[in-house]
Design a protein that fits this description.
The complex is a heterodimer of chains A (172) and B (519).
Chain A (H helix, E strand, L loop, with lengths): L24 H28 L10 H24 L1 E4 L3 E6 L4 E7 L3 E7 L2 H6 L1 E8 L6 E8 H19 L1
Antiparallel strand pairs in A: 1-2, 2-3, 4-5, 5-6
Helix pairs in contact in A: 1-2
Chain B lengths: L9 H23 L7 H26 L1 E4 L3 E6 L5 E6 L5 E6 L1 H5 L2 E7 L8 E7 H16 L21 E5 L2 H10 L4 H16 L7 H16 L3 H31 L3 E4 L3 E6 L4 E7 L5 E5 L10 E6 L10 E7 L1 H10 L12 E2 L2 H25 L6 H20 L1 E4 L3 E6 L5 E6 L3 E8 L1 H6 L1 E8 L2 E9 H16 L10 H4 L6 H7 L3
Helix pairs in contact in B: 1-2, 5-8, 10-11
The chains are: A alpha+beta (172), B alpha+beta (519).
InterPro entries (chain B): UCP026631 (IPR014529), YdbS-like_PH (IPR005182)
Protein name (chain B): Membrane protein
Keywords (chain B): Membrane, Transmembrane, Transmembrane helix
Chain lengths: 172, 519
């Protein structure tokens, strides 16, 4: 079996601890919008609760809705930015590294040689912001699919082609 | 190409018997319930008969409409009454072929043949039932087709291929005496769960309300007053006798279950793989190709570990019925496990293996957090419960701390040129071995505490199982990942499962050929 030297790690002094590439800025906006959408039902619920107990005059008006609003605002303003900053990826000649998680950090590396199939997925929100999720599927039970959300749409497709080309090169 | 074939005709009868079995309980229920008044026995009989007739009809129709074809490159099964489905499984994708003979089919000399592809239990291909000989032929056929796809011009599949009836070397066998010892260690109180289930059933079909507390309390006070009149010594003796009884029942259950499952356990090594036969009533016969083995798990138990007994399982995409890895030696000494391990192309850790222990910080953290739960629980208990009771959760906290301290003893990992090793467990170690080359991804995961304290959990992607190293210091985890990735990235997935003879010699990576050396 013939190894093209380009694929052997010796040819690439790979640094798995290197600088991470940031995701598409649209991803932060998408996260923010998603958080907002999640917060809306809670706000409505709080307003309904507020209206329901208004006549009882148990607590000053606006306490419930106010608290929920403050928490929601904090989440909408702070968390998406932090989450965006916590995420990143690193792509090299033969592997993809995905870092994610605020409290529970996870730092996964998938060699292209173990990729079974590749998905590029775009939800309606993603399409609005021009981003896409790249998912690599492996045969391992743990990390059976490693997804990298928040890539620019073009970039995601390019990466897919690149990984696919690598797989074909190895197999043929 | 062969003609489409049907399964054995007796399958229809077995299907009918199956429907009879499922009709019995509703029929009994009707007979003993109020439905139908005086005519209820007739009604029950009618319901039973109708369901048997319907079951038989369906069974026959299914048999008529299910055909299998043994093709050049794949096995095809077409089935379905109204909506037809045709499934094709290529020979190269068949992980293993297992023959299972449940008690009733066994009487008729029939087996269920299962082709495991690793696509997940329900999606696998199964033919029930074929005759013993047919099943064996089919297995031989699949193996030969897979092994020499192109090389051999395939003989007529109708003519049974009986070239090598696989009388390989026996690697491991459970003698009845060993089986008995094994059963004693398989202590199980499952019989009480069964009793509970039976009680529930009694409750459903009879007038006795088993969940009625008063009934039991009445019975208990009656018995209790008898016991109370006996005096302290007799009471203690009775309690000890009760406990002993429990132990005896638990061990007896263990022995019975083990004998049923593992009677005649034999593991044989043949030219291409491993073959395991076991079972007293339900006999199963599984063949596992050696090169499909992804990793090994050496498990043991709290007590049996102290006597030097271990169990060995193969991790692969194909799995046993309960979704567990294939057990190849359920109860063996390490020196018996060693030859099986080397036959599978793996090496056991030896003196040259450099074990690394988990971070001592992780030990401290698991001890603190493991016992913190109980300490916290002690606070409300101390406030609200009668004095002295708070000692119970405090005692539990001490025990938890001790258990976690002890568990650290077993938490180790190691890596060498071709394999990775990990060990973990509370009172006895579970050891895992995997080939570096057959890993699929590496993840370094850290929780908030782990990040603060600088250690991590390393998850290695293993097909058919999980592989985890706990409490690895961060720098070490990174170094480990780098070296594992170096091995993984150098060989493409498509080259992993190729037949060994094609490449074992030309393969430049020593670890790869090593894994196949024995194959």
């Amino acid at each position: 079996m013939d190894h093209t030297p380009a694929n052997t790690p010796a040819g690439h002094p790979l640094d798995d601890e290197g600088e991470l590439t940031k995701l598409h800025p649209g991803y932060a906006h998408a996260l923010r919008l998603r958080t907002t959408l999640t917060a809306i039902p809670f706000l409505i619920g709080a307003l309904v609760a507020e209206a329901a107990i208004r006549d009882l005059a148990l607590i000053p008006q606006g306490i419930i809705a106010g608290t929920v609003l403050v928490i929601a605002l904090a989440l909408i303003i702070r968390v998406p930015a932090t989450r965006y900053n916590a995420r990143g990826y690193q792509i090299s000649a033969d592997r993809l590294r995905v870092v994610r998680g605020l409290l529970f950090r996870s730092d996964t590396v998938v060699p292209f040689g173990r990729v079974q199939h590749i998905d590029v997925h775009q939800g309606p929100l993603d399409r609005f912001f021009g981003i896409a999720t790249l998912t690599l599927h492996t045969a391992g039970n743990h990390n059976a699919s490693v997804s990298l959300p928040g890539l620019g749409e073009e970039l995601a497709r390019e990466m897919r082609e690149e990984i696919r080309a690598h797989i074909r090169r190895e197999t043929v | 190409m062969s003609e489409p074939q049907r399964t054995a005709p007796i399958s229809v009868i077995l299907g009918a018997i199956g429907s009879l079995r499922s009709a019995i309980f509703p029929a009994i229920a009707i007979a003993f319930s109020g439905i139908g008044g005086d005519g209820r026995f007739l009604l029950a009989l009618g319901v039973g008969l109708v369901s048997v007739v319907i079951g038989t009809a369906f069974s026959y129709a299914h048999w008529r409409r299910l055909t299998y074809t043994i093709g050049e490159t794949d096995i095809r099964v077409e089935s379905g009454l109204f909506s037809r489905s045709a499934r094709s499984v290529p020979y190269e994708r068949i992980q293993d072929v297992s023959l299972e003979a449940k008690p009733l089919p066994r009487l008729f000399g029939l087996v269920a043949v299962k082709f495991e592809t690793g696509a997940g239990g329900a999606d696998d291909l199964a033919l029930q039932y074929l005759t013993d000989a047919q099943g064996e032929d089919l297995r031989q056929l699949v193996r030969e087709r897979r092994d020499d796809e192109a090389a051999v011009s395939v003989a007529d599949p109708q003519a049974p291929v009986r070239s090598e009836p696989d009388a390989g070397e026996v690697l491991y066998a459970l003698t009845p005496a060993r089986l008995l010892t094994f059963g004693l260690f398989e202590f199980s109180l499952a019989v009480f769960a069964v009793l509970g289930g039976a009680l529930q059933y009694v409750d459903n079909v009879s007038d006795i309300d088993v969940w009625n507390v008063d009934l039991w309390r009445g019975w208990l006070t009656e018995q209790g007053s008898t016991v109370a009149s006996l005096g302290l010594f007799v009471q203690a003796a009775a309690a000890i006798a009760g406990l002993l009884g429990l132990v005896v029942i638990g061990m007896a259950t263990g022995v019975v279950r083990t004998v049923l499952r593992d009677w005649g356990f034999t593991l044989t090594r043949s030219a291409r793989g491993f073959r395991r036969q076991r079972g007293l009533l339900t006999r199963t016969d599984v063949v596992m190709p050696a090169h499909r083995v992804q990793g090994l798990v050496i498990g043991t138990g709290l007590v049996r570990y102290r006597f030097g007994w271990h169990g060995l399982s193969f991790v692969s995409l194909a799995q046993d019925a309960e979704g567990e890895s294939h057990i190849v030696a359920p109860f063996a000494k390490m020196e018996e496990i060693a030859p099986i391990v080397s036959a599978a192309g793996f090496r056991l850790p030896d003196d040259s293996t450099q074990w690394h222990r988990a971070s001592t910080r992780q030990r401290t953290d698991t001890v603190v957090f493991g016992s913190a739960v109980f300490v916290l629980a002690a606070i409300p208990v101390a406030i609200f419960a009668p004095f002295g009771l708070f000692l119970v959760p405090l005692g539990a906290a001490v025990l938890a701390a001790g258990a976690n301290l002890y568990a650290w003893e077993f938490r180790r990992h190691a890596i060498d040129a071709s394999q990775v090793y990990a060990s973990h467990g509370f009172f006895s170690p579970t050891r895992q071995i995997a080939t570096r080359l057959k890993l699929h991804s590496v993840e370094i995961a850290q929780g908030p505490i782990a990040r603060l304290r600088g250690y991590a959990t390393v998850h290695l992607g293993l097909a058919g199982g999980t592989f985890t190293m706990q409490g690895v210091p961060l720098a070490e985890a990174r170094a480990l990942r780098a070296s594992v990735l170096e091995t993984i990235a150098s060989t493409d997935f498509s080259r992993l499962d190729q037949a060994p003879q094609n490449q074992a010699l030309s393969e430049p990576h020593s670890e790869f050929s090593e894994n196949f050396l024995a194959t």
